[in-house]
Write a structure and sequence with these properties.
The protein is α/β, with parallel strands linked by helices. Helix content is 45%, strand content 18%. The chain has twelve helices and eleven strands. The strands form two sheets. A six-stranded mixed sheet has the order 6-7-8-9-11-10. The chain has a five-stranded parallel sheet with strand order 2-1-3-4-5, with helices on both faces. Strand 1, helix 1 and strand 2 form a beta-alpha-beta unit. It starts with 6 loop residues before the first strand and ends with a helix.
Length: 299
């Protein structure tokens, strides 16, 4: 199997997606053949449709999913899709889609297993990334068995997607060097202050859904959405936290009466029961740049 012939489609601005890209490149895939995309089905469909028309090699889709309608129209036998989000479950009827229905592995762990099985003896570079993938899985599925997973997540926040990939391609150790640790420590202090400030900005509404009153907290937040959402639910006793940035992120409390993956799917997004999201433009029905151009006041 020649990985340099593959294209990889994976999750944009997400540590799981970054880990997928790192694995792909370590296995012999080319960096220029990695395509990042927001996880809503519309954007993934657009990207995959373009690849189907213009890419002659195999296409590997990891940690994001296409719509069922697009899947039904794919006639090629060189497409592989690996996903663990609840919104991807309808794709399990397709033989080329591997969906972790029980959410026992994150996207990069699924890709690691796929590479290990299909390459028989994966390159040493891939095997060396196993510790990283375990921590990414721990963080992405919010298992939280390892304290180090929070540290790696913060490193991703600090470095961003591209530099995070560079770091683990060059140095696969999960142990941070002194400079990395110093920067992460600063980020922890900055993050904690940010979360406390944002909790004070939450706007609360009570909605009646399925004959039950649901407390929903809204706040503008472009960073640390996952942790902030969980803090809003636990500290402010919200059933649902809605975090609005470039994308809309939904987080539910342990007793949340709503399946947030259904809410996300209705809005062209996806995710899990208690953690989902979708693009802001999918509910505004317009490109954000167009909205600014239309509504900006000049005088």
């Amino acid at each position: 199997m020649k990985m340099e012939q593959f294209a990889l489609v994976t999750h944009q601005n997400c540590m799981d997606g970054s880990a997928c890209a790192t694995l792909f490149i370590a296995a012999g895939g080319l960096r220029e053949n990695v395509f990042f995309v927001s996880p809503n089905h519309r954007d993934v469909d657009d990207l995959v449709l373009n690849l189907l028309e213009n890419w002659s090699g195999p296409i590997l889709i990891a940690d994001v999913s296409i719509s069922v309608s697009l899947a039904k129209n794919i006639k090629r036998n060189d497409i592989i899709l690996l996903d663990h989000h609840k919104s991807a479950i309808p794709l399990k009827e397709f033989s080329w889609c591997e969906i972790d229905v029980e959410n026992t592995r994150c996207g990069s762990m699924m890709l690691y297993d796929w590479l290990s099985y299909n390459m028989l003896h994966p390159p040493l570079k891939v095997g060396d990334l196993k510790e990283l993938i375990v921590l990414v899985d721990d963080n992405d599925r919010y298992v939280k068995n390892y304290q180090e997973s929070d540290v790696v997540s913060l490193l991703h926040e600090v470095l961003g997607q591209e530099f995070f990939i560079d770091r683990f391609l060059k140095n696969k150790s999960i142990i941070l060097n002194p400079m990395e640790q110093y920067v992460v420590d600063l980020e922890i202090k900055k993050r904690d202050k940010y979360i406390e400030r944002k909790k004070k900005e939450v706007q609360v509404i009570v909605k009646e859904i399925n004959e039950r009153k649901v407390n929903v907290g809204f706040v503008y937040a472009n960073t640390h959405q996952s942790l902030l959402g969980n803090k809003i639910c636990t500290d402010l006793n919200m059933d649902v936290a809605v975090l609005i940035g470039t994308n809309v992120s939904l987080r539910g409390s342990k007793n949340c009466p709503i399946d947030l993956s259904v809410v996300a799917k209705i809005n062209s997004g996806g995710g899990h029961k208690l953690a989902s999201g979708f693009s802001l433009s999918s509910i505004l029905k317009n490109d954000l740049v167009e909205l600014v151009k239309k509504n900006i006041k000049w005088e």
